[in-house]
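In this supplementary section we document a worked example of the pipeline. Step one takes a protein sequence of length 112 as its only input; no multiple sequence alignment statistics are reported here. Step two produces a three-dimensional model, which step three serialises into structure tokens for compact storage. The input and output of this example are shown verbatim.
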Amino acid sequence: MKFIIAIIKPFKLDEVRQALSAIGIAGMTVTEVKGFGRQKGQTEIYRGAEYSTNMLPKVKLEIAASDEIAAQVVETIQQTANTGSIGDGKIFVLDLASATRIRTGEAGETAL
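The serialised model returned by step three reads:
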């Protein structure tokens, strides 16, 4: 099993969620986060004054997936969240040692 963490632009969330549902992803955790990468934030103008924000709003997706579908999940997120501009985000894939469904006690891939 794989644990996939994706940091994407907030306005891409619905599009990514729909694309993941279409390939069979039944659930995910979504968190609103702030951060920066290579772009080091951005400069904005507010009431005529220029100021710099070093933390940009992003959305973090956390998805547990079977080994068989993990590559497809990554590809789907990459293609759907891509705008071609700086700050599109990152995708991280980690090995997931175990998963347990609390209600039934199912473990492993059946818990997903």
